[in-house]
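Co-fold these.
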Amino acid sequence: MSDPLKTRLKQLIVTTLKLEDVTPAELADDEPLIGSGLNLDSIDALELVVTLEKEFGVKIASSEESRQALASIAHLAEFIRARADPARIAG
Amino acid sequence: MSQPLAVRLQASGCLTALGNAVATHSALLRGEVALRARPVLGADGGESVPLALVQGRGFDETAPPNWLPAVRALVATLAGEGWGSARRPVFVTSSNFGVGSLYAYRRHGDAAHLAFGTPHLCVEWLARELGWGANVTTVSHACVSAHLGLLLATRALEAGLAESALVFSFDFISPFVTGGFNALKILNAGFPAPYADRATGSIGLGDGAAFAVLTRDTGDFSITAQSLHNEMHHFTANRADGAGFAACLEPLRGAAAGRRVWLKGHGTGTLEAGKLESAALTAAFPDAPLVAWKGSLGHTLGSCGLVELALASESIRSGHAPGTVGTSTPTFSPAVIVEPFSTQTTDAVVCASNAFGGAHAAFILSHA
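Predicted complex below.
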């Protein structure tokens, strides 16, 4: 059974970054987001971080923490679960 | 591009949160940190981040900008008249000019802010306020802006287009600028520790303004070589192998051959760039001591090259260079010097700066 949070994150990534050649369903949970895999760069990371902070009310403290959180969909979901109000995760 | 012509530095000066060049140099020797935790968005609050403002200046924008008195005080120390005339060009550099004014207009709707909100409007206003003539060129190249101004002034002298040239730089931070760096997460709650090998990087931002008067043959100091290199790799990132840093320094190695140099690095406090920069500097100039001063002053952005030129010349003049204030061990390189040291056994300093977009710049400064 798919994880609703991961599904939501995949949708957010595709929408926020206006990815045209990939659908949310095509994003693997363990696919690296930055530098390889989707080949997102630091500007993409900035856009994603701003979106995630607004969407889930989480605070990402540093660029290093941002990089860790954005390592993959699975890492990102784990980060959100650890930091966000469960009510906001439920959406 | 590199520039082999040696020009003289007839005069230099700067203004930072610690005062003028002499006061700032003395405070750095004492290890003072100018950065203070302040709300990143000024009156609008936000996370507390390390910022260093010129004494007495408010952080939020005013119209006219509240940094004008500080600029006036700095320019009052500049000898000579006729700046901006045909043979005495002015090169004004900044990475931000009055961009905070646009944000202030957006927030408050006061049209008075618009008069300072673009580079050319801001420099035209400044030139009028300071009594400069029409021969004023506006230059911006992110955080190596001041280096580009020095290079253009050098070329004007080399071509015989000027008898002396004034390079003037100013970057006064505003909520717009600090908010942007905060969004990138490189300006965060942590204080900068340049070249420290730690888990989390952070920078500080600071006010800075500075000037340098260049001539062909008059002055106590020489700028004997300059280099500017742009990787053209990415909007924000450097090549991971550090090749861009090395390519910028390569032209200076020959110019420094046989000389005992010390290194004034960029050293903002970010981890990746700090590691690449310190590796490139120590590879190009083995055994040379390396310092950076942004752990105290914060990053003065496009003006840092000129601010630090004034401080480097003060270090040579006094015989003592400040150490890397604010850093902690372990550092990326054993060449990083934490404490002040004597410059009397050295011949020259290599001053390096780096910028978004993989832009790198450096020059060599020595006694004439």
